[in-house]
Amino acid sequence: MSRSFVKFVLLCGLIAAVVSCTGTRKAPAEKNARTLVWSDEFDYSGLPDSTKWGYDLGDGCPSLCGWGNNEWQYYTARRPENARVENGFLVIEARREKTGTREYSSARLVTKHKGDWRYGRIAVRAKLPAGLGVWPAIWMLSTDWKYGGWPESGEIDIMENVGYMPDSIFGSVHTKRFNHIQGTQTTKGVYDNTLSSAFHEYAIDWDAEKIDFLFDGQPYLQFRNRHEGPDAWPFDQDFHLILNIAVGGNWGGQKGVDSTIWPQKMLIDYVRIFKNP
């Protein structure tokens, strides 16, 4: 037996716990792994899966005209021009066309009563639209509104973007005590100049003590439970997911709306919900 062969055998023995002698890395068993409990990989074509997705409809009138934000779009249901699955992606498309009472059409997909969760990791991989006046969002609202209407029962904005800040996304939390009407909301932005040209994962890790906001797996904002009641922390109830593109509005239209950029699309690669260990 040659000395070089002995050295090779000894070396393989030393590194076997990490890399085999064939060069294949062994994946260590993950402790306390999360469990996937709900997902849509969009590996089909046509309308969004009706067992997972419903729709918010219209212009929000009469109670919340413009959906409470003076938005310009009319949300449709089961209309492929505004929401469809093709080429492995969910496509949400806002269009400049007279629809209902509005000059723009779009879609607002919801998982309410089809996917409702309390705690876990909520992750959505998406590519955003671009242009002055777009307002895409990935967010969550209370399913049962136990603590009252907005903002008493809470809102979790996993991702918001407005067209006049094309290189920034924002994560936010709204409660009775902390909300944008009072200017007390908890929010933070992330800068990236590829939001409309590349896919990124927008996620939260949520448990009884905190909500962490993540961009491509990196945390950038944390909202903690102060244990001061539901006015500060209504996030001990079931919430559902919402995906939409709004047009204009108090924030999205703050710098105007470019009428020449439409249609605009948000592409969603996957939605994955994990239960905490």
Walkthrough of the structure:
- This protein has helices at residues 3-15, 249-252; strands at residues 35-40, 54-55, 73-75, 83-86, 89-99, 102-106, 108-110, 116-117, 120-127, 134-142, 155-160, 168-174, 186-191, 200-206, 210-215, 218-224, 239-247, 264-275.
- A hairpin with a 7-residue loop joins strand 11 and strand 12.
- It has two domains: 1-30, no CATH class; 32-275, Jelly Rolls (Sandwich).
- It has 277 residues and is mainly beta.
- The strands form two sheets. Strands 1, 3, 4, 5, 6, 9, 14, 15, 16 and 18 form a ten-stranded mixed beta sheet that branches. Strands 2, 7, 8, 10, 11, 12, 13 and 17 form an eight-stranded antiparallel beta sheet that branches.
- It is globular.
- Helix content is 6%, strand content 41%.
Question: What's this, in brief?
Answer:
This protein has 277 residues and is mainly beta. The protein is 6% helix and 41% strand.
List keywords for this structure.
277 residues; mainly beta; Jelly Rolls; ten-stranded mixed beta sheet; eight-stranded antiparallel beta sheet; 2 helices; 18 strands; 6% helix; globular
SS elements, strand count: 18
Which second-level CATH architecture of the largest domain applies?
A: Sandwich
Mean model confidence by pLDDT: 91
CATH topology descriptor of the largest domain: Jelly Rolls
What is the element string, with H for helices and E for strands? HEEEEEEEEEEEEEEEEEHE
Number of domains: 2
Shape: globular
Largest sheet: 10 strands, mixed
- How many DSSP H or I helices? 2
